[in-house]
Amino acid sequence: MDFGIDKLIIIFLAILTLILLLIFWLWQKKLANQQEKLKKTQIQQQKKEINLITREEKLRLAQTSLAIQKKSLQKEEEKITNLNERLLQKGKIITEQIEKYDQKEQRLEEREKELHQKEQVNNNQLNQINKLHQEVEQKLWEVSQMDKKEAKETLFFRLKEKIKEDLDKQTQKEIKHNQEKVKEESTKIICLALEKYSSELVYSKTVNHLKTDDSRTVGRIIGKDGRNINFFRKLTGVDLLLNSENEVARRKPKESKKKEEWIIEISCFNSLRREIATRTLQRLINEQKFSPLQMETVFQEVSQEVDEIIRQSGEEVLHELQISSVHPELVKHLGKLKFRTSYGQNVLEHCLEVAKMAANIAAELGLDINLAKRAGLFHDIGKSVEDDGLSHVTSGVIIAKQYKEPEIVINAIASHHRNFPADNPYSFIVMAADTLSAARPGARGQQLEAYISRMESLEKLAKEFSEVEKIYAFQAGKEIWVIVNAKKVSDYQLLEVSEAIQNKIREQIIVPGEIIISVLRETKFTQKMNTLPQIGKPKKKKQINAKKEIL
């Protein structure tokens, strides 16, 4: 019996220990779960704190960059205001000197006129005395020898000649008086038109600038062995120059802790090409994409955006002048003038200025203001066409006829350089407004126009070859890139093309120094592949995109 009780006690103790062990295991497991939850919550809190810290750092960096940009903008604005003040002061001094010189010149001219008039009066009086003396002698001799009838006829003839001479003198006086009056009235009308119109000075440039403080971005722009920058130059037709602004940091790196800033110069004589390249490069820098395929994609997108900007620019000018019923293609031609220059003067601003001046003159003369504005706005529309081999006047007439502009507008376009006769008053008004806009001080620069003309002539000359697809001139005409058609020219003919272009340039254009001519022939192979797996069929090869360039 005792043995059975002991056995039950042992079993009870064993079960109790098992229960205690199970409870202890469950308690340990619960503690482990709680610790794991605590760790997860701590990790999440740490992640949130890290995210907050990174956001604060980004905000702080953005604020510092904004402050730096504001400072640079303020400095540039101060420079511009200082330059404007200097220009105004110089302009005042020059105008004062011109007025003094004009006054002196007027005095001298008046004195010369007085002396000349006195001399003429004296000579006339002497001539009249001599004539009277001769006439008296002649009359005495004739009266002594003629009868009554002959005397009457002679007297009648002389009276007739005298009256005719007096009438001629009176007519000449009236003509001279009317000419002076017309000149005075026209001067008054032009002065009133100029007083009603005030324009800003617009200086066109051939270089755009971008800034970056990231050296890695500059390295990616250049690419390995200059591949990226050369591809960008070939794609856009502009020249890139990268300069470091922080010279002190380069010379004394231990003493200066400032970040090295880089200035990227986008240089091209063609304003449209330069604008597209600047926008393309800015987007590539923002997106940090510098592969050739990405460059081509962004370039095409920006080109479409600039086309839209051209259309909007034309519509804005038409809205400002309140001109309606204009063909959409003519609006695009008008917008292209925003990216054209003539002697350093923006052509669209010049056309807008001519339109407003023509409207003011027409208002003073009581003519149709809207027709005068239309003729003045479209007088240089031919400058929107590139490389057609015609003058801008001929191109403008063709465009105006194509889009059915009024005959008065067409005649104003044809005659504004006096190469074609004007047949209406609006054409003469456009001539006067065009002369006033071009002749005002500071409106045009001869050196810039000569540079642009030289670059355009270089590109136009190389395009005469049928093998050439694209031509770009860089470094003020010292370097020329010629892209040829790979189907028409082989690798062995590149030297012949280069020598032919070189000989033509030497014959027709005088450029001091040496010119580097680079002839490029490019061949692309592209094959599509299917990335989805196919059962029972072998996998296709990957895409092949090979390029071959020969300079």
Detailed description of the structure:
Among the domains are: 94 residues, Ribosomal Protein S8, Chain: A, domain 1 (2-Layer Sandwich); 123 residues, Hypothetical protein af1432, CATH 1.10.3210; 103 residues, Alpha-Beta Plaits (2-Layer Sandwich), CATH 3.30.70. The C terminus is likely disordered. The longest helix is centred in the N-terminal third of the chain and has 142 residues. β4 and β5 form a beta hairpin. The protein has 551 residues and is α+β, with helices and mostly antiparallel strands. The strands form three sheets. A four-stranded mixed sheet has the order 6-7-8-9.
Overall, the morphology is elongated
Helix/strand/pairing category: alpha+beta
Head-to-tail CA distance between termini = 113 Å
Using the 3D structure, state the CATH architecture of the domain at 322-444.
Orthogonal Bundle
Quick structural overview:
This protein is α+β, with helices and mostly antiparallel strands and 551 residues long.
Summary keywords:
551 residues, Hypothetical protein af1432, Alpha-Beta Plaits, 4-stranded mixed sheet, 15 helices, disordered C terminus
Q: Which SSEs are present, and which pair or pack?
A:
Layout: H1 2-143, H2 148-196, E1 207-212, H3 215-222, H4 227-236, E2 239-244, H5 247-251, E3 262-267, H6 271-287, H7 292-321, H8 328-336, E4 341-342, E5 345-346, H9 347-365, H10 369-377, H11 392-402, H12 407-415, H13 425-439, H14 446-462, E6 468-474, E7 479-484, H15 494-508, E8 516-526, E9 545-550
Parallel strand pairs: 7-8
Antiparallel strand pairs: 1-3, 2-3, 4-5, 6-7, 8-9
Helix pairs in contact: 2-9, 4-7, 6-7, 7-8, 9-10, 9-13, 10-12, 10-13, 11-12, 12-13
